[in-house]
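Worked example 2:
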Amino acid sequence: MKSIVFPALARSSTLALAAALLGVGLPVRAEVPTVRIETRALAPAAVAEATIEAVRQSTLAAQMPGRVLALGADAGDRVRSGQVLVRIDPAEAAAAVAAAEAGIAQAQTALVNARAEYQRARSLIERKFLSQSALDGARTQFEAAEAQLRAARAQREQAATVQSYATVVSPLAGLVAARHIEVGEMAQPGRSLITVYDPAQMRAVADLAPQRLAELGAGPLRASVELPASGRTIEASAVSVLPAADARTHTVRVRVDLPAGVEDVLPGSFARVRFHGATASAPADGPVVIPVAAVLRRGELTAVYAADGRGGFTLRQIRLGRSLPGGEAVEVLSGLKGDETLALDPVRAGVEARAGAAAR
C-alpha cells in the first residue's frame, strides 16, 4: 500500500489552505483547483476506545465504627485540602480512650508499689535478712509493672488514634465525584464515604493488544484524545505503557495524560485515543492519503474526481479509512493508486465533467 504527498494549487483561500498543508499544487484546468498525489512516508497509527480518569483520585473510607453525624460536602462540591468532609460519632472511641486512661492510672499505682517492694528487698538483702531468690522475685515484679505501664500507654495511643478517625478530611483540593453514605447511617471500617478527585490532572486509559503496540514501533508514542461528547481533540502531554499485561484480557494498559488545566473533562466519560508511532514506513508501503476537500459524498457514494489527461475529470469511487491528525487528510483503502491528479472542488469538477460530456 502507498502513502501520498499531495501538492496543491487553489484559488479559493479555504482550498488553498488545505492544499498548502499537504504540498505543492499542479492544476489541470485553471477553473478547478487540483492536487497531485505522490507517495509519502507515514508513521504507523492505531485507534482505541478509552475511559477518562483523574490522575489524583481518592475514595475515602471509614476507619472506625460509628454513626455519621454530619457531611461537609456533597457530589459536585469543590473542596480544599484538609477540609472536613465527614464527622462520625466518636462516643465508642472516647470510651476506649477513657478506659485506656484508667489502665494507665492502675499501671502507675502497681509500678509504685513494685518499686517500693524492690527497694525494700534490696535493703534487706544487704543486711542478710532476705534471700537472693526473694530479691529476684521483687525485681521481676518491678520490671513487670514497668512493662504493664508501657502497654497501658500504648493502648491509650491506639485509642486516641482511633478517636481521630471520627473526622474525615479531604487529602487533596478538587471536586467531590460521589457521596456513598447519608447522615445517620452507620459507618463501618472499610465502608466508602466520599470520592474526591483533582480535575486539573486528567488522563485517558486504553487497553491495547501487544500486537497493536508492536505495530506502532519501538520508539516513543504520541497520541491525541478525541472527546466525542464535546467534539474536541486534545494532544496528549505524555503516553505511558504499563509494563504488564492483564491475565484475563491479554491486553496492555496505556495511560495518555492530558495537558494540565483542561476543563470540562469528566472522569468515567468515553474517549477515543489515536496513537502515532515514531518510526515512519517506507513511502512505497504507506497508505494512500488524500485531502478531505477532494472527497465527494452523495448518500452511500464516496468518490473523487480525477483528471482524465484530456483536460476533464472522471468520477472515481473510493473506500475511505482512518482520518489523519488535524482532520485535513484521510486514508484511501481502495480506488486510487497514488499517481492521480484530483480536483479539490469536486462539485465544480462534476459540473465541468457534465458540461464536457454534453459538449461531446
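The domain at 4-42+283-359 is CATH 2.40.420.20 (conserved putative lor/sdh protein from methanococcus maripaludis s2 fold). The first strand starts at residue 4 and ends at 5.
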